[in-house]
Amino acid sequence: MENREELMSEVLKRVQRNYMHMVEIERMTRELGDALSRNDQESAQLLIKMRQEEMDLTSEMKGEIQLLIQASGDEQGKLLCWLKGESTYPPDSFEEKKIVELSCQLTQVLNRTIEIDKRVNSKLAGKDSYYQSAQ
After folding, report:
1. Which of 1, 24, 84, 114 could pair covalently with 7 via S-S, beta carbons 3.0-4.6 A apart?
2. How far apart are CA 29 and CA 115, in angstroms?
3. CA separation for the pair 22, 106 (Å, rounded)
4. How far is C-alpha 133 from the chain's CA centre?
5. Dihedral through CA 33, CA 35, CA 37, CA 38, nearest 10?
6. Is-above-0.90 flag for pTM?
7. Using CA atoms, how far apart are residues 65 and 86, in angstroms rounded to an integer?
């Protein structure tokens, strides 16, 4: 990266995209639960496929963020901290503050999605649920 502002701007763009994909995953997970409640297998299969596509895009964004972190030199520690939603290093610029804010929101979306997914997975798999074996 040419300068710090450009780096933070690029990280922020990817964090925003990642957040948008996670919100979509949350929505689709909720809809998947609804489809399964209605025994609508066709919709459920379609939602599973679409959700996987969003998950793939999220993985891609995370990979791009990791590359930016690796290229960030002295900023690595700060970026990693901010991406966890921590403020150990107080953010100065607008971009840095938005990275922290979106990272916190991303964690909330992820936690909500996991809770929804646990319920859906338990309905589908019962005692064979991924979440049962993970405990």
Report:
1. 1
2. 10
3. 7
4. 23
5. 170
6. no
7. 17
